[in-house]
Amino acid sequence: MERLGGFLPNRFFSNAIPVFFSLVGVALTNLPFSVFGSWIPSPLYALMPVYYWCLVRPDLMSPGWVLLIGLGSDVLSPAPIGIWSASFVITYAVIDRQRDAFAGLSGWGAILGFATATLIACCAHYVITSLYLWKVMAVSGSIKEFAVTSLMYVAVLPLLGWTHRKVVGPLRSDF
Amino acid sequence: MGNGGWRISRSRGRAHLPLTVVAVLAVALILFGKARSSLFDDARTNLSDWMRPALSVTRAPMEAAGKWLSSIGEFFWVYQENLRLKEENARLKQWHNKALVLDERLKRYQLLLHAVPDPAMSSVVARVIGRANHPFLQTIILDAGKANGVKPGQAVIDQRGMIGRVYLTGERTSWVILLTDLNSRIPVSIEPNTDQAIMTGDNSPMPMIETLARGVQLKADAQVVTSGDGDILPAGIPIGVIVPVGNTYRVALFADQTTAQDVEIVDFKLKPEHPPAVTQQELPVTAAGLPPAAPPQPGAGLLPQPVLQPPPPVFKPPVQTQKPATPPADSGDNDVPNTGNE
């Protein structure tokens, strides 16, 4: 692709796609409809692209973007501001530190890896919310959220993989 | 499968914001959000206002799909359900007639007793255009806002009972905190002894009864209504019935917040109640300017006479203006203290 005065459209779009996917995930999670029924929380769709690209291409999913994705989740949900941001950053930090261990997983092990990341996010969210409200919260909501998010990753992962192979990869010249 | 079959990149690319800086920013964000929550609330309401047309359009198919899914199981016992509903309908008609008779009788009694009528309440009918379901927060979004006269704090009810109360209002949308939400606290009154308590949500389907006076024993199925304390919510809105759970009491809600579609936002504003004007005949004799009563004759009776006390302070209602009452210049002889009623 040609360079347009210092601006590389391909690079820009390849950088934007993971963030775009995460923001779509934020919107889907906070869509004010109970697709899964009223007593099952919405899955954390935004965590899926964060986890995926943090492992596959961490340069496309930087900590700053993760903070902004968390902030988007905070604003769209009726939760106190900053809690999802902090939870996402904590999860990102753990994934980043243990990247080799997570990236080496395949098959159902990879699903288990994502379930671990979800568990970290849900635990962080639970602890921060409990501290914020200074009240011991019921864990049932977090457990349900963890379970439904982990299950939904099985359905979303092929889409993320396809997008990375067919769209993000060809757009990057250094791939 | 785990990584979509793509090779793992080892490169980090250009330098990004360090993780520690981002972590510090996240903590700062929490503190800032706690200090200036209204800033983000405005963003939320603006967003819901902006999304309102889309939410209204997408609501119908989503609700239809939800209803269709939930009705699959009901298809198999629709006949029994029909019989049960017919029987219930017949019973309710009897109660309806009885309620009409009692309502008329109550009105007559109130008229006879000159009872202060219940404050008039207006309401806005709104439609549920969204439900947010998160682990610690349960809210719904309505398609009525400031433009329709909706204000934060107003009660939201459906045909069965109270659902929650408004906590954020946009121009055309409002966010409702449900009774089951963790942040919900409602002053309630429990029939028949009108025991006062606070009902708190804990994200379970049945909110908990708290702050109940010591020693109070509640009965199962006792009705719970709003108490009206604090003049925030109107008194007497039905909420649910008591369900004892171990040593605690919970409330089985009348309204089903998961199926509520059209709701009412009750505009309740208790008007200040002014006492009726005091007539001359009702005033104590001294305050009315009449001569004091003659002292009792000694030995007039065998029983000891009660000691006469100075007349109690008299409330003088303001005549025309709402200015604070000042003692009249010519009342210095009796030096009536301020009653504090103004």
From TrEMBL, chain A:
<feature type="transmembrane region" description="Helical">
    <location>
        <begin position="12"/>
        <end position="30"/>
    </location>
</feature>
<feature type="transmembrane region" description="Helical">
    <location>
        <begin position="66"/>
        <end position="95"/>
    </location>
</feature>
<feature type="transmembrane region" description="Helical">
    <location>
        <begin position="107"/>
        <end position="134"/>
    </location>
</feature>
<keyword id="KW-0812">Transmembrane</keyword>
<keyword id="KW-0472">Membrane</keyword>
<protein>
    <recommendedName>
        <fullName>Rod shape-determining protein MreD</fullName>
    </recommendedName>
</protein>
<keyword id="KW-1133">Transmembrane helix</keyword>
<feature type="transmembrane region" description="Helical">
    <location>
        <begin position="146"/>
        <end position="164"/>
    </location>
</feature>
<feature type="transmembrane region" description="Helical">
    <location>
        <begin position="36"/>
        <end position="54"/>
    </location>
</feature>
Automatic annotation (TrEMBL), chain B:
<comment type="similarity">
    <text>Belongs to the MreC family.</text>
</comment>
<dbReference type="InterPro" id="IPR055342">
    <property type="entry name" value="MreC_beta-barrel_core"/>
</dbReference>
<dbReference type="InterPro" id="IPR042175">
    <property type="entry name" value="Cell/Rod_MreC_2"/>
</dbReference>
<dbReference type="InterPro" id="IPR007221">
    <property type="entry name" value="MreC"/>
</dbReference>
<protein>
    <recommendedName>
        <fullName>Cell shape-determining protein MreC</fullName>
    </recommendedName>
</protein>
<feature type="domain" description="Rod shape-determining protein MreC beta-barrel core">
    <location>
        <begin position="128"/>
        <end position="266"/>
    </location>
</feature>
<feature type="compositionally biased region" description="Pro residues">
    <location>
        <begin position="307"/>
        <end position="316"/>
    </location>
</feature>
<feature type="region of interest" description="Disordered">
    <location>
        <begin position="287"/>
        <end position="342"/>
    </location>
</feature>
<dbReference type="InterPro" id="IPR042177">
    <property type="entry name" value="Cell/Rod_1"/>
</dbReference>
<keyword id="KW-0133">Cell shape</keyword>
<dbReference type="Pfam" id="PF04085">
    <property type="entry name" value="MreC"/>
</dbReference>
